[in-house]
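name: query_chain
kind: protein
chains: 1
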Amino acid sequence: MALMVCALWFFTHPLSTSTKSPKHVSASDGVTSTQYCNPRSRAAVDLRHDPANPTFYDDPTLSYSIEKPIENWDEKRREWLLHHPSFAPGSDGDRILLVTGSQPSPCKNPRGDHLMLRFFKNKVDYCRIHGYDVFYSNTFLHPNMRSYWAKLPLIRAAMVAHPEAEWIWWVDSDAVFTDMEFKLPLKRYRDHNLVVHGWAHLIYEEKSWVSVNAGVFLIRNCQWSMDFMQVWASMGPQTPDFEKWGQIQRSTLPDKMFPGSDDQSGLIYLLLKEREKWADKIYIEGEYYFQGYWLDIVGTIDNVTESYVRIEKKVHELRRRRAEKETEGYAVVREPYLKNAGYGKDSWRRPFITHFTGCQHCNGDHNPAYAGDSCRFGMEKALNFANNQILRKYGFFHPNLLNPTDLSELPFDF
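structure:
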């Protein structure tokens, strides 16, 4: 019930999310725009030797707009990769582009922009460790598709802009990576094109509005995804049928308590009503915290920290100082000691992503069901918990997870 109330508040008090890019440094003007998290994931391109062969980019009818379909996208991508073999997937797996964003205007909450920066820093830290690219947007690529609908035009444009990326990974601005070592189990999804956190029984038996969460999802850069997003977006505010879709969604999902059409309800509707067409390619992930509800997680963070410390006290190799680039190897060494940790509420494994649904950190108008400063303290704790995993590679840590300015040097053989 708490999750449903929280989700209702999110959709009735939406935080606008959207579209622009953080960082590609130009020495001449000092302006930053598209940042790659890790140089090893970027192939150098010398435009003086750019292949002369035309690609889909030379087609004057090509559109980045979600309202204009693209055909034969798989063939277009394949041909582009043939001309640019250095961008083909390497031995370390499929290329991933993480996409996130916020509204173009400043936050109403005095602390909102600071929190927005910290949430984004968290995502950059995770990308840097694992060699993923990241694109941050603070513009609306479609003037009518704002709030939770803004992600779809952005993802569509990102697919065209990044043919080298096999996966586009949307992560809401209010979601925190709280396990910096964990990597997506991509082999599990090799036969699927969309991965979303949820529960199949709540979708197909309960027809619940909170059976999935559309704030974090992984979507393959392929024609299937282009077609799916075209249908998904047809329920958005840019269509003349927007109000009708809100009524249809509400009549389909008994626990949806507000009239407007939203992207999450649209996704569930397609799973229910067009199951044969789409569902086989959609993976409903419920085995780990692909995204976890923050109220279920924040109270467990202290116990999780203590459990990891107990392991490291017994295993010298896990206490050794290591370069940040060795983080993935460090995770492999740790994994055998986490076999019995489990996942979910009773787990002592670090939750992968903690999602602060309903906290509205930008406008400060959080769900009234949340007591006092619970959102603020929860975000502080989760962000510092995640930052400690980064800081230890630099020799420091936060001894108090509710005080980001309190910093101590990490003892040798910690």
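note: Residues 1-42 have pLDDT under 50 and may be disordered.
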